[in-house]
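Tokens in:
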């Protein structure tokens, strides 16, 4: 069972918690702040007129107002459309008499051919979790006259050398770096992302 001293301590702690729960709100309850005594008045909602909607009627029972208009002939006026290139140039000449008229030339617009980007290759030397390690390796490779750079992907800092247009050139660079620095890299396609 529980020792008597522990029992007394538990009873004393529970009495203190109950008395604090009763007495503290009475002591700490101060005056209400004046910011909370603001009276809020809500205006009356606007009155909208009640609309009467007529029930749906079949088409046969609706009055036919357009039957009287159909008996009267309607006048239709047509807008003349120029048919030749000279007819098109005449309104322009009338609007701007000082302008010199050039003979109509047929303009051929050629669409540029889509640019084909050749595959480029890079040597991925290493991947680091630390940015400082990647920077040190890039500097070391640049001192050895390699086009080295670093990119970040998925919280990893990858170090590359290149890009080159031929895969064979990248493989040659990979072999040189392996012999000089004892770093074995892989040749991958160059990506701008």
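Residues out:
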């Amino acid at each position: 069972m529980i020792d008597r001293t522990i029992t007394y301590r538990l009873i004393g702690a529970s009495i203190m918690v109950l008395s604090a729960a009763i007495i503290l709100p009475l002591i700490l309850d101060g005056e209400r702040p004046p910011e909370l005594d603001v009276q809020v008045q809500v205006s009356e909602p606007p009155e909208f007129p009640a609309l009467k909607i007529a029930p749906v009627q079949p088409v046969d029972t609706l009055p036919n107002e357009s039957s009287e208009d159909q008996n009267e002939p309607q006048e239709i006026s047509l807008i003349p459309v120029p048919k030749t290139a000279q007819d098109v140039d005449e309104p322009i000449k009338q609007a701007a008499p000082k302008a010199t008229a050039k003979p109509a030339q047929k303009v051929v617009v050629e669409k540029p051919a889509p640019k084909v980007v050749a595959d480029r290759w890079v040597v991925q030397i290493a991947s680091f979790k630390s940015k400082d390690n990647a920077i040190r390796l890039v500097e070391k490779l640049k001192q050895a006259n390699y086009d080295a750079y670093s990119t970040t992907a998925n919280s990893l800092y990858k170090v590359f050398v290149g890009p080159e247009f031929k895969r064979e050139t990248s493989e040659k660079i990979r072999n040189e770096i392996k012999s000089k620095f004892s770093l074995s890299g892989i040749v991958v396609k160059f990506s701008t992302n």
